[in-house]
């Protein structure tokens, strides 16, 4: 069973996470290193991160079910936990319909994939499911350790906790910019919202359920939308925004630092929330 993920995780895409970064955020008190994107089934980048660190958990956010079959992913899981028991969380997801020609009946695909992981001996407690909508959130709670929503708000977290009940983990991601000037902060955050997410129906539908409209999706995203999914300002203001997720029912927040000096962002957040 995977160890505690801690209150906060440090999220970066798998091809940019280095052992040096993993060591640094572990020392700051982060419990998890999240590796985003859709890595290959071999997950060869995971062991160097675990080897360099002492106790931090490495989590994928996410392995794309359309991209790789369950069997090789399960083989990688067993290889990793055989060397580093309790320190790997297999985050899985279905990707985006705009990016996958075979994207048909995604819910059925997820159920089938989880069935195959069961058969391959990947424990429910060591896997999580990317989830935005109610149906998939419920599946995450029933068939995995919990849900890993991406680009959401504390209100989404509150609704997700109501759907999941008390036991499943709820592990939202939230982007962070250490900048107090609104224009500069949004200039850093907006491109990470605009591309590709403003062109992906599953994210647009999720935001619509939260009360955003087509006006919020135009011209690269409204200030209201950007401010909702990208925390910026002083370390204290950022810490307060991340705490809203925890107060709304999240067990853990995956903090995605944006900007030129991402370690400085992780350090500032840690000083507010982990010291």
UniProtKB/TrEMBL annotation:
<protein>
    <submittedName>
        <fullName>TIGR03620 family F420-dependent LLM class oxidoreductase</fullName>
    </submittedName>
</protein>
<feature type="domain" description="Luciferase-like">
    <location>
        <begin position="19"/>
        <end position="117"/>
    </location>
</feature>
<dbReference type="InterPro" id="IPR036661">
    <property type="entry name" value="Luciferase-like_sf"/>
</dbReference>
<dbReference type="InterPro" id="IPR011251">
    <property type="entry name" value="Luciferase-like_dom"/>
</dbReference>
<dbReference type="GO" id="GO:0016705">
    <property type="term" value="F:oxidoreductase activity, acting on paired donors, with incorporation or reduction of molecular oxygen"/>
</dbReference>
<dbReference type="Pfam" id="PF00296">
    <property type="entry name" value="Bac_luciferase"/>
</dbReference>
<dbReference type="GO" id="GO:0005829">
    <property type="term" value="C:cytosol"/>
</dbReference>
<dbReference type="InterPro" id="IPR050766">
    <property type="entry name" value="Bact_Lucif_Oxidored"/>
</dbReference>
<dbReference type="InterPro" id="IPR019922">
    <property type="entry name" value="Lucif-like_OxRdatse_MSMEG_4141"/>
</dbReference>
């Amino acid at each position: 069973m995977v160890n505690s993920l801690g209150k906060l995780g440090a999220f970066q895409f798998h091809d940019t996470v280095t052992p040096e970064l993993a060591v640094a955020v572990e020392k700051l008190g982060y419990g998890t290193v999240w590796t985003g994107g859709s890595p290959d089934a071999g997950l060869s980048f995971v062991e160097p991160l675990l080897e360099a660190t002492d106790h931090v958990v490495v989590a994928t956010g996410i392995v794309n079910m359309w991209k790789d079959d369950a069997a090789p992913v399960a083989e990688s899981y067993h290889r990793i936990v055989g060397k580093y028991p309790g320190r790997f969380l297999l985050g899985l997801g279905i990707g985006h319909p705009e990016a996958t020609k075979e994207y048909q009946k995604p819910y059925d695909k997820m159920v089938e994939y989880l069935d195959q992981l069961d058969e391959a001996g990947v424990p429910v407690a060591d896997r999580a499911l990317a989830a935005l909508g109610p149906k998939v959130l419920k599946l995450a709670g029933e068939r995995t350790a919990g849900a890993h929503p991406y680009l959401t708000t504390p209100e989404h977290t509150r609704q997700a906790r109501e759907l999941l009940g008390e036991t499943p983990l709820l592990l939202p991601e939230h982007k962070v910019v250490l900048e107090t000037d609104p224009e500069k902060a949004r200039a850093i955050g907006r491109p990470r919202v605009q591309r590709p997410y403003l062109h992906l129906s599953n994210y647009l539908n999720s935001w619509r359920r939260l009360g955003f409209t087509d006006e919020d999706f135009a011209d690269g995203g409204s200030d209201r939308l950007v401010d909702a999914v990208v925390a910026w300002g002083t370390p204290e203001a950022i810490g307060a925004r991340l705490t809203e997720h925890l107060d709304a029912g999240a067990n853990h927040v995956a903090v995605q630092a944006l900007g030129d000096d991402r370690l400085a962002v992780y350090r500032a957040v840690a000083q507010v929330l982990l010291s």
